[in-house]
Automatic annotation (TrEMBL), chains A, B, C, D:
Gene3D superfamilies: Glycogen Phosphorylase B. InterPro entries: UDP-GlcNAc_Epase, UDP_GlcNAc_Epimerase_2_dom, WecB-like. PANTHER family: UDP-N-ACETYLGLUCOSAMINE 2-EPIMERASE. Residues 24-371 form the UDP-N-acetylglucosamine 2-epimerase domain. It holds the Pfam family Epimerase_2. It comes from the Bacteria. GO terms for molecular function: hydrolase activity, hydrolyzing O-glycosyl compounds. This is UDP-N-acetylglucosamine 2-epimerase (Hydrolyzing). Signal peptide: none annotated. GO terms for biological process: UDP-N-acetylglucosamine metabolic process.
Length: 384, 384, 384, 384
């Protein structure tokens, strides 16, 4: 009988992160892949990952709408509560043999609670990392609910084991988001016109002499400051005055703070040289990244994929605090002048050497293989 | 301005456990106690703790009905999801400065998620212990969501610190459930007629020459076995043929397995010498316990209060696995003959020396004092 | 392509009512029957209708646990809210062509809202009747949400049309609960031992010289009175002192009032001659009814099935107010003496003539045929 | 003791509609006004009515976030389910003597269900009207759940009575939205600069020689067509080429269709002469309306306020089907040329006579007075 493996995707970046896992599972002979798409991954204004997923040839087994609207943290809690209500019904019907929860967004704990409470073995991808806000609490709580851990670095593996998990079930697979970058590192040429392929709004600056990429997300615990933070970055980028490709932030309490800041800044300033995208397919995005002079913002892409591709990064603020870094990252606070100086410094670096800190490009296959073969159990006790 | 401290009570045993904390908070001059009663603590068939709470002179600030009916594990997950939906509204209205979550029942993670997601500092009572089922996952996950830890033993303190928590905010206060036992240990006389005061059903055996007490709860991960387990215990108790006071199990997926087992056994056997209670006030129960020949079952009362009172305990099955024990406990598996032999052995021990393994009787005051004075924060990162 | 017809069963009596509809749908060649079992129909303590349904050979397509525990009216509202959340996910996945909602229990409006809000054509069975409590509001509100109406009497048909519904889609099919009674009316012999087949508790009085049947449900709007009401009936029945078969009430806010009343009365009185059943298969129950001297209580069974079978009925209280009656019914208030006198009067009547006020026994086939053939639409406006 | 009157506001237009009721209740001596703000009335992207409410001097008693994100009808159903869950908790805490539900938006039935299921008397404002989509089902279903009816016209009164409601509790008070227009009708001068006061986006055409106003909402049952519908209107308005003030649509399944259509049209066309507002205070909006050459779209404002103010209206599509009209309305289908011709025709009409079809301007006081004085009950049966 085929092993039924349920993967719950709750956001576009999570999908990009595990795409190679899904591909490997889909092609595995003894696996029935149950793909559950939920939360912002279903919503237009966060990039409608589900369309991407289906366009990539995956069949969606169930859809769960659970994002509660609201400009406050209460909505994040409620979204999680609704997620549990809905996912437990989904699991009740699909009866998966094992459930996979990805990373540390707030709503992912709904997957972990539904599965663990229903005695379904739970695997967690990307535990053991360290950041500085609610994600930190969520990530380690999910580790304590999970039975199998697929982590992205040696540092992460050590931490998960220190958290009292059985070392037999903690696997450093590397991060599957790196997998896609292997091909791009080998052949980095920008082979498509991003304006034509992805639309977006704003000027369409010429990219042939280099450009910046910006991705800055709100930080949950400081969401009232989101608007100010985004403005500091905006000013720095404008003053640098290079062609810039700006990617819209993901959903979160405070997302509207950041979004509003971007909209207001655009409305009140005559901005040139900047084009805004909602999102982009993983491989296309990596090509854009591979050819950027500098990546600016606070995305984990700067820590992982950019390290593998050797792209200089200006990491702004606390969002990636204490994540292991390769040498490509310069950290700065939310101040226009400091951000600007750091961008200038990194422009001159041109390129760093490729780092395998977060994997060598085979994480997807390793994770799929483990999901297919680990002995199933849902009972554990702390190791100390 | 008074510090607003919200305590969420979700079950009758949790109330008994923290009663002395609540009393100390109620009497503290600079505290506004927000008492939130939820889940089975509101329901008749689980002992209606809320009536007891009000009879004890506490004012209930908010009530949250969130127990979903169902004879399966899905209902436990859903109860938790509804709890998050409801509690986040309650917190949104009450705006507590700090929230207290108690122990490790499945639904308590709803308190932890709502508070932590809303950036409200979260204190957890009784983390760091070790058991063998879903409670184990819940307990440590709540630890990773919490900012302050009030643990009941040195072993628990060490474990919470190993989990990466800041030692400055991990306090071994002892278990407040022990506090009530101080008075009983000093003066253990049975000063009331339990039949008259608490009703219940079944024969009313004479207690003056000693009696057994039985408390056996279902074990979540084995709920289909609950009925068999309870029958093994039942047979052993019947064969011992001493006056017996049997306490009804608490709510859980599987509660009905145990309850059904008890009902069926009663219906099919002519049982003498056994009286059944739904529940009892903390102090009265401790007097009953203090005068028992042996406590039989799998309640944590056997590990904690009975140790302090020196009462012999026959602990059946895996529910208290790996909890630190004093010498008063004998562990047995679910087999009639083995349970019976252990009861006989313990009857002959008569009494053990009082142990302070789980506290010296001042935990309530210590916890209340800490809740009132700790600097408030909700931001943390793992310590390694 | 087969028409997908979703029927939502939320309680044991609703199942009995539509069983012949389900059988006809199951046997129809161009129909895919989607059977959704929800609410108390899934719960042991309300008779676990789902087991009966499966034993009768129906396949359950989806299960929805949505009963919130609680001894108050708030729980009824919340159960409905959860029902909408869950049923809309179910409909989203099953994509039925038409949805069927049954009668007027509070939780049935969840079916009606989910379907109508999702633009799925909605059929309602048993609209247009008149009672005196929350069911009254629910029933007519569901009529206003529904697109097709299968009513049980001419009076009901007139009322639904007066409510502004298009007469083309209001069909007097009779009540399908009558269908089962056709066979029993033809051959009423009691061909099984109810004690042996259905267990239950209490004495097992000899039934060969006749017996009473009692079914009394709580009335939502008066739930604090439920306990007193049930006691009046209990006293009357005890004083009559005939063999009595008593059926446990269904779920409702207040169910516990009635249940508690029954339990307390049993505990405090030495009751003989009364046996208690949780429930019984439809056809068996009808045989029990057909041979009863009198049916006592407030069940709609007295108004419908008993009329068809010619069984004398003492209808107590307001629950069946304004439902059309045949001559077999005597209405009384909640007073012991009056109930007793009425029982005595009815005993002497022995039998009434069979009435077809609520149908001729072919309702199930008619409804199934209409569900399979009506043109599908979900757009309507009031007719005046 | 003061009568506790709870009013639930779920959208910005509903607030505008009942503002004069709230003012009268706030000033009534024996009333405790419990103002509950929920759903889109709390959300920035639908105009954040709650800020307006507080700026107007009302105190908000409770906030309920219940809007589930999603571009489909399922989200509307789920929003309603969450609303019931949350509102029943709110009512449980506030214990209102009577609850007021407004009009017919899909989520308003949550108010009606929570109140009626909890035996709280329910008043409904604006029943008895006729439209052509899901609102139609919702409106009449709420009527059947409600105990008191405050309707806006004689036609509406007749319909509610025909629906079987007791005529003693059906009151034609007129529509309170008209109340604000009394002052504007007397003194219609545009006394503020809308661009300066309300921001918005787009060109800022000169308004001194007249202008169009556009308000077009998605129609739930046709949401896939929303985008095409809005484009037809857009083209007609562009071709007319007069200064135009365009108001953003309200929330609904399909809102994003309409919004997307507007955004796309703006992005792809060089639009001049059009300014877009999210919303405006009631009285300011009425002044804008009073001075408009024509109101275009499908808002009920065209049927009510515009009739009272004598403003010519081009009503597009089916949304206002069968609402009683004064002579100021011309109805058209969704075709550019036809819409354009109708606008041209209406421009030449200049002004119509004021109509009192929907009230004389004292509805707010009448409704408040009735809410304060009607005998309270929650029990009813259909009148036929």
């Amino acid at each position: 009988m085929k092993r039924k493996i349920a993967v719950v995707i709750t956001a576009r970046p999570s999908y990009s992160r595990v795409k190679t896992v899904l591909t490997a599972l889909k092609n595995a002979p003894d696996v029935e892949l149950q793909l559950i798409v939920a939360a912002s991954a279903l919503l237009d204004r966060y990039g409608n990952a589900v369309e991407r997923i289906e366009a990539d040839g995956f069949e969606v087994t169930a859809r769960v709408f659970n994002v509660l609207e609201g400009e406050n943290l209460t909505a994040a809690a409620k979204t999680t509560g609704i997620g549990i209500l809905e996912l437990s019904t989904v699991f009740d019907n699909l009866k998966p043999d094992i459930v996979v929860s990805i990373a540390d967004r707030f709503e992912t704990i709904a997957t972990a609670i539904s599965a663990s409470y229903m005695n379904i073995p739970l695997a967690h991808i990307q535990g053991g990392e360290v950041t500085g806000n609610i994600d930190e609490k969520v990530r380690h709580a999910v580790t304590k609910l999970a039975d199998y851990h697929f982590v992205a670095s040696e540092g992460a593996k050590e931490r998960v084991i220190k958290l009292g998990e059985n070392p037999d079930f903690v696997f450093n697979t590397g991060c599957p988001s790196i997998d896609l970058a292997v091909e791009v590192l080998a052949n980095p040429e920008l082979d498509f016109d991003p304006y034509q392929k992805y639309g977006g709004v704003g000027e369409k600056p010429d990219l042939s002499n280099g450009y910046l990429v910006v991705m800055q997300h709100p930080v949950t615990n400081e969401y009232t400051q989101s608007r100010q933070h985004i403005e500091e970055t905006f000013k720095a980028v404008i003053e640098i005055n290079l062609p810039t490709l700006w990617f819209w932030p993901n959903i979160d309490a405070g997302a509207d703070g950041t979004s509003t800041g971007i909209r207001a800044f655009r409305e009140n300033n005559n901005i040139q040289n900047v084009h805004f995208f909602k999102n982009m397919d993983g491989i296309d995005f990596l090509r854009i990244l591979a050819n950027a002079k500098v990546l600016v913002g606070n995305s984990s892409v700067g820590i992982r994929e950019a390290a593998f591709l050797g792209v200089p990064v200006v990491n702004v603020g606390t969002r990636q605090n204490r994540r292991d870094r390769a040498e490509n990252v310069v950290d700065v606070v939310h101040e226009t002048q400091i951000i600007k100086d750091a961008i200038q410094w990194q422009i001159e670096r041109i390129r760093y050497q490729s780092s395998d800190l977060y994997g060598d490009g085979s994480a997807g296959k390793r994770i799929a293989n483990l999901l297919t073969t680990v002995p199933l159990h849902f009972h554990k006790t702390i190791s100390y």
